[in-house]
Amino acid sequence: MNDLKMGYLTTVLCLLTVGLIATPLSAQEKPLVAEAKAEAPELTEEAEKAIERGLKFLIASQNKDGSWSSADPAKKEDGGYAIGGTSLGLMAFMVEGHFPGFGPYGKALDRAKDYLLKRSKDSPTGAMGVKMYEIGLFTIAMSELWGMTSDPEDNKEIQVALERVVEVILRSQSPLGGWRYAPRPDAGQDTSVTAMVFVSLASAREAGVLVPAETIERLTGYLRDQAFDEQRGGFGYQGKGYTIACTAGGVYAAQLAGNRDTEWVSAAINSLENDPKMFSRKDNGHFYYSHYYAMQAMVQAGEEHYAKWYPKIRDTLISLQQPNGSWQEKELDYPHKTPMSIIILGTPNRYIPVYQR
């Protein structure tokens, strides 16, 4: 699998050209026809500049130990979200084709990778003492790093860390099929945590880690039967209902679980596309988080949806970028906003498998 991933990156880098869940051949042929008709948006010069400014901010704000966090480095393990921030930080660089050990950012990304691996090694259970949100982001980072670093010795360490954390996730799934904050099956479930965790399982599955079919079926059952509201055409936080963030995350997770062509997933996509609050930073309370999912949901929905959606969020994010290159709105803001913005802006690159169709 690692050789395949390296070969995949080489092809992408050479052709600058984005699957996750395997589909029948006939289903794979259809997007090729659509791509010939639809003009999928590419990176503009303004977007490229915004991404580069964001990456330079991340380099400047990286902690000495290689992490990114929202708090004082000395307190980052107590509320600083260093696992989630560092995982997202790495992915922000990877979405632009930058990997640990390579190029101008290679050393900084090596430090970030080493920080995450150390936290995993120091954890007796592999859960690292953090909530499921961060466990999910760590899993995505490890999945996408596996086989992509300059030091072959890293591969085994990344594999061990990835397999351990996937085991944590699998045994933490609730009887209803979702996940909540604590890595325990009796912790309950909500759509927000469930979406993040399942996206990470899909990434691990793409990397070659076994994810049982039963896990995916139970996840689909939770989203369809417990969280999806047919009247409102979206997903609720706990139970049926509609919130922008949960609908964006829920529909993306449902797509990755093999439900792209179902009526309920199509209804959720339609709800997002017609929500007047979606692109308003003021009215969409979880703006960056919801768009992180929504952008990828539109990629999964097909080129026509993606081609209409990306320019809107691209231009909105460019307008929201701060003078220092970040998307932080206060000095010690949550560490997810800047890397998520970069990941969204870099969608046309299609370098990271979990962010592809």
Key terms:
Glycosyltransferase; mainly alpha; 1% strand; disordered N terminus; 14 helices; two-stranded antiparallel sheet; globular; 357 residues
Describe this structure in words.
This protein has one domain (2-15, 48-355): Glycosyltransferase (Alpha/alpha barrel), CATH 1.50.10. Strand 1 and strand 2 form a beta hairpin. Helix 4 (82-94) runs parallel beside helix 14 (337-345) and helix 8 (191-207) packs parallel to helix 10 (244-259). It contains 14 helices and 2 strands, in the order αααααααααββααααα. The chain has a two-stranded antiparallel ribbon with strand order 1-2. The protein is mainly alpha-helical. The longest helix is centred in the middle third of the chain and has 20 residues, at 153-172. Residues 1-36 have low confidence and may be disordered. It starts with a helix and ends in a 12-residue tail after the last helix. It is 58% helix and 1% strand.
Write the layout of secondary structure elements.
Blueprint: H1 2-15, H2 25-37, H3 45-61, H4 82-94, H5 106-121, H6 132-145, H7 153-172, H8 191-207, H9 213-227, E1 228-229, E2 234-235, H10 244-259, H11 263-273, H12 287-301, H13 303-320, H14 337-345
Helix pairs in contact: 3-14, 4-5, 4-6, 4-14, 6-7, 6-8, 8-10, 9-10, 10-11, 10-12, 12-13, 12-14
